Amino acid sequence: MLLLAALACTPRDDGAAADQPRVVSVSKQINEFLYAIGAEGVIVGRDLTSVYPPAIRSKTSVGYHRALSAEGITSLRPTMLLTDGNVGPDVVLQRVKDVGIPVLVLRPGAGVDSAQMLMARLGREFHHEHEADSVIALWRAGMSQVEADSARWASAPHPRVLMMHFGQIVNDYLAIRSGGTADRILRWAGGVNAVDSLGGMMRLNPEAIARLAPDIIIATDVGFDRLGSVDRFAELPGVALTPAGRDHRIYRVDETEIMYFGPRTPAAVEHLAQLIHDGTPTS
Amino acid sequence: MVELRSVSCIAGGVRILDDVSVRFQPGAFNVIVGPNGAGKSTLLRVATGLRAPDAGTVHYGDRLASELSMLELARARAVLSQQVLPAFPLPAEDVVLAGRSPHYGMLPTHRDLEIVSEVLDLVGMASRRRQSYATLSGGEQQKVQLARVLAQIWSDTANDDGDIAGKVLFLDEPTASLDVHYQLHVLGVAAMLRDRGYTVVAVLHDLNRAVQFADHLMVLSNGRLAYETARPEDVPVEVLERVFDVRARRLRDAGGDGAYWSFALHDASDRGVSRRTDSQSGGAPATPRD
Amino acid sequence: MLKALSFGRVQWLLAIGLSGALLLSAAVGAFSFTPAAMVRHIAHALGWGALSTSDTLARNVFQQLRLPRVLLTALTGAVLGVSGTVMQGIFRNPIVEPGLVGTSAGAAFGASLVFVYGGALAAPTVIGSLVVPVMAFIGALAATALVYRLATRFEKVDVITLLLAGIAVNAVCAAGTGFLSFVARDPQARNITFWSLGTFTTATWRGVLLVGTVFIPCYALTLRDAKALNVLMLGEDEAAYLGVDPRRLVRRLLVLNTLMVAVATAMTGVIAFLGLVVPHMLRRMRSSDYRFLLPASALFGAALMSVIDVVARVIIRPAELPIGVITAIVGAPVFLAILLRQERDGVARHG
User: Fold this and answer.
1) Which residues, other chains included, contact B47 with Cβ-Cβ below 8 Å and sequence gap of 6+?
2) In what helix (H) or strand (E) does residue A166 lie, and over which residues does it extend?
3) How many CB atoms are located within 10 Å of the residue A206 CB?
């Protein structure tokens, strides 16, 4: 009986042509870029939390990027595993290599330049250089505009902004600190990070939030959607005591707009600027 | 032959046993009695080699108990305790088989299995050997334990190791929670072993049973040997009264061939409270079963 | 029904069941392999390349990922099954298993220490790959020894104290591990969390070798004490009277047992309840005699773990569920059932 069950599970045989790349891509940023340069056809698998653009949801998910399975990835018969390096468990990259699948780790780096180089790299890798170049050109133009526009805020008051992200592993809210991507975007938009210290993210507690006393709170999607409304968010302990909480200046922003640099960054800066300066969200 | 010489045991600053010297008569039914807290359990633990005394020596024949390995001791003596409950369900025969474990290596031999059958027969539990031990009544369980203990020191001089003369059966208040049938059964089997040449050492709580079965009676009080006799039926009244803090009367039964005792607390009649006597149930002592 | 069969017969049945489970485990998953394909892949590995297939990816997956996983799963199941059986014998109670007496939590804490502070040490060299299992062993031994000490005062094992001591030690270890994941940098914290749920995804040949090399001698040595474990069931004093030194026996078994469990836990993370379910079912199916239980729990544990891993692999493929989730879903009701039955039979207080 067990033998029959085993036999019944016939191996998948997609009969893929040898030269058509099949890529399992584990990274929100890389996935967005692939769609941006029109190379999304190479994607046969994505990680669970890569959900931008919405069309990517039709691609098979190989699981949470920190809980991957080498066999699961391999079962899609990819020609390559593409990642930004943020994967777990640690050994999974090695295991995938062990079965003969090449692994390409492209780290995005710290700045817009390196992100653009990443896109160019992707363009070369998948023979979409032309599209990549035009997207990058537009992107560059957008960034120049951002630089120019940020002069608007030079003499204007800079609101104190606290950016709150929800950490799934620690199951708690985290504050985005200075020096990173989101912080840069915030500064272009004429805001100042309520958190001075440099680094990635910081655990919060109600007293810390109250002490930071932000004028505005930017909450990323998962953290905001858990509570569902500005009113409920304003009731969080600590938040209620801040100017942002009292004035209900709490805004929802999609994580993918601010957590990495991409072609949408210029629009994200503008979006953020509108939110924090006159309080009206752009469309 | 088991002998204790000047044995003392101290725990928590208290002398549980104080310079006790006893010699258990070989091939006899030795009985130790004494009030609670007299040190009987400790004496037994020392005599069986489970616990080393803080002072004095324990002798098994011409060797010291401390020199014997646990396995050698296990082949020389067996101990029947008050109540043993295995942690998991086992058939009665497996409990008995555990008694043979000092005698075989990995697997029991044919002879071991034969002995198990013989002892189960002896205690009258042969028909129940497959039954789960936990489902037996208290008395039946004790019969099975007795069988196990017998199996441990079973000796058919033609076949088995050692001879009977060196073997000792210890009984540690084995009948405390049993009805009179089982009390008499257990002690009767022990007496039968004595008849075959085994040495029996029993700690008993029931003075009348003690007197009924003992060849050699020892009275322990406050960690000391208060009295010792080879004629238990002639224990002086004042010894019992002093040691147990009771009023004692010796009675003879109608047949005149056995003594038994009737006890009462000291101040019962002074207070006009109805006399509470403690005459052991069972009336005239029955003869030990063969 | 099984009660009518001899020990040997039942063990044969279990062995057959294990073979089936292994076959299933080798066949099913994100990749599927027919028995014919398996033979080809194994033949190729042994050097008989003539029979090899053109599907090198499938072959690599089978040789590098699937086969070590099948073996590691079975070995871990055997370890946990035997461990639960032995622990129950040592503590003379059917509620005991490595998860409850601190062994797994201690191993987790020891391993987490390496994850967070031992970065340089735990390199993928031969020595480096031993650091985690060694620390896991130390942690497991310390935790279990503490529970045993606390639970056996006055020469008796008190079940209530045992459970409470287990809870306490588990809590301390969990707090330690929790603190470590709090202070850990991101990649390390990921390791700890992921590993706390138990997984066979990371099975490697090296892991199989390590667990196998530890399990086989530990199991063989434990087997020699089957008779002594039977005797110990009567009680510590009774065992002593029968020539078995209970203290030495327990110490010996505890060390062997903890070693096995710690090494397995170090490879695969914390997997609870298997050590509880396996002996429980075997006792009910056939017997509490350790001459039967020890081999049977190895066979049955291996089979059960294999089947559970298949479920974990298949249910949300190509992603995977953590093993610990499934064993908890199956094991927790079994634990409750044993507890209720114990209360009913009134043996809860006997050591």
Assistant:
1) B2, B4, B24, B58, B170, B201
2) strand A160-167
3) 13
Residue stretches of chain B with pLDDT short of 70: 156-164, 254-258, 268-290
CA distance B209 to B213: 6
d(CA B134, CA B86): 8
Inter-chain contact C242–B102, Cβ cutoff 8 Å? yes
Which runs of E-coded beta strand occur in B159-230? 168-172, 199-203, 216-221, 224-229
Q: For residues B223 and B42, what is the distance between their CA atoms, to the nearest angstrom?
A: 9
Task: Calculate how close chain C gets to B70, using CA atoms only, in Å.
Answer: 5
Other Cβ atoms closer than 10 A to A112? 17
Of A45, A74, A169, which is closest to C31 when you measure between CB atoms? A74
Place of tokens 């002998």: B3
CB within 8 Å: C61 and A77: no
Any A CB within 8 A of C199 CB: yes
- C38: contact with A, CB 8 A cutoff: no
pTM equals: 0.81
Within 8 A of A60 by CB-CB distance, chain C residues are: 318
| Helix, strand, coil fractions of chain C, as percent rounded to 5 | 75, 0, 25
Rounded-to-integer distance, Cα B282 and Cα A203, Å:
79
Closest among A171, A250, A157 to A209, alpha carbons compared: A250
Our answer on whether A and B touch (3+ beta-carbon pairs < 8 Å) is: no
Q: CB–CB of C118/C103 below 8 Å?
A: no
For each of chain C's 351 residues, which pLDDT tens digit applies?
667 778 888 889 899 999 999 989 888 887 888 888 888 888 777 777 655 556 777 888 888 888 999 999 999 999 999 999 999 998 888 888 887 788 888 988 888 888 788 765 555 555 666 787 888 888 988 998 888 888 777 656 666 777 888 889 999 998 998 888 777 766 666 677 767 777 888 788 888 999 999 999 999 999 999 999 999 999 888 999 999 998 889 889 988 998 899 888 888 888 888 888 899 889 988 888 999 999 999 999 999 999 999 988 888 877 788 888 888 888 888 878 877 877 776 554 443
Interatomic CA distance for residues A112 and C228, integer angstroms: 71
Rounded Cα distance between B217 and B211, Å, is 8
Residue B238: both structure tokens together: 């004042």
CA dihedral angle for residue C336, residue C341, residue C343, residue C348, rounded to 10 degrees: -90
In whole angstroms, what is the distance from residue B61 CA to residue C306 CA?
Answer: 58
Q: What are C329's two structure tokens?
A: 């879903």
- Looking at C184-245, list the stretches that DSSP marks H as alpha helix, in order from N- to C-terminal side: 186-196, 205-224, 226-232, 236-241
Q: Which residue has the tokens 């290596």?
A: B105
Distance CA A194, CA A198 (A): 12
- Predicted-complex ipTM score: 0.85
